Amino acid sequence: MRLAWGDNAVGLQILTLNANGNYITHYSPTINNLNTVHGLEFVSYGELIIAQDNYTASQKGLAKVSFGSNLNVTFLPGTSAYYNSFIERAPDGKYYTTKPNIVNGNTSGYKLSEINYANATVTDVPNLTLPNMDLANPNRLLPDQVDHEDYIATNYRADLMSRDAVTDMGLEPNPSEDIWASPDLWNRRNSLGNPNDNQNPGYGGGGNLMKVRIKNRGCMTSQTSYVKLYWTLGATLERWPASWDSTTFINNVVAGKEIKTAGLGYADYQTVLGVDKGYEIAPLAPGQEVIITAKWTPPNPMAYNDTPRIGNDAMICFLARIDDPTQDPMYSELSSNTTSTGRNVRYNNNIVTRNTNLTNAGGEYMVVPGGGTILVGNYFEEARHFNIRFHAKSTTDMGFSEVGSVTLRLDENLWNAWMESGAEGEGIDIENYETRTLTVNDLEHAALFKIEMRPDELMGIGAYFTLNGPTDIQETYQFICSQEMSYAEDDAEQYGSQCVFAVAVHRLVEV
Fold first, then answer.
1. Domain range for residue 424?
2. What is the value of pTM for the model shown?
3. Which of 499, 492, 256 is nearest to 385 (CA)?
């Protein structure tokens, strides 16, 4: 067998070893004007691909090296961007490398590229940009090899995941901000209709069905694993685990908990030797996926109505965690009173959430506003000032402002706190002081500024959507309500979670 590595002093080094790993011969091929070898991978016993810096500009980049009785080096033209990258052979037998993804003159992640050894060409993998995988050494654009062994072989394992968004490839951490409406986690009030469409939870007429889709993106068949499911009242201050583990109460009613319902014809919650495991995930082959369905009963929002903060239209949010510390451990999960749920979702492809309220603006036009209420608040141990922001998630050919209007309604506690803090804001007009309602006049930049909130204080804000009149437009609009610490408006820090309102205009959406 052979072992090869790059050496700054004398370039490429190749050792021939016997079956016991003992030294036989050493070879250092002379490559024209070679400076440094950064990455390499064997193609066969006598062939290598290398990424190298070269004193001759036209030869800098990737090269094919064949050695035996004669040395043959082929420099791949136009590959200088790859000169300092690692090279890895994937389980499909293909070879991959990376290069900086340049946006407006700056590096923004790295493009994954496939090397065709036979044709001496390199092609970018479409629609895929990788984050920097080695923060300690930015020049290392693919993961380190381990003890000079092949990286794929030493990490050849199952990897169970659910997606944060339809574009999610399972990277940890997820480089996208689009993590609040997982397509792999949804609710059904019953088994009628399209089983893959999300519905708002129903509070009467029996239990609901929570569904989670899990896929094995790894290279090996997984062993039996488990997933845990949770619900919580929709809020911009969702944290792990307090929002989800039956320790938060409103009016002496639990405001979030794990779902542990017995099967009743659906998935059975598993407890092994007194330890709660979750819902079982059967072994999955590479690329295989499964949908697990659990029965659950949402809380009645009226049970929380000791204060004005929650109405009967409260948003309910979901969370799924593939909990398998032995086979598929979390990449980075934190647990504290100030760990936002979003932080853990972004850093782990084992965790997904859905913070979505659906409003159907079908029919001739919507006269009675549709929408929902969420909680805002302060999970710190001291009083802080916060901004509350509301904005359209994306623009469309016709903005919602051309066909409808948005009203925000504050509960009494939030209204008073905002007034006492100076009633600063942007993109809003006060519509009615008695009903504490605001009209949004700028759907891109609506905000309430510098609201002082006491520790563990909870307050409510509702968003409601009305069509101005009949319209033929068919569109689904999404709006986001979020909260941030407001030390200064220009230097606001990220905080908590985002809540998404989806408004369907003349679209068949089951709410």
1. 358-505
2. 0.69
3. 492
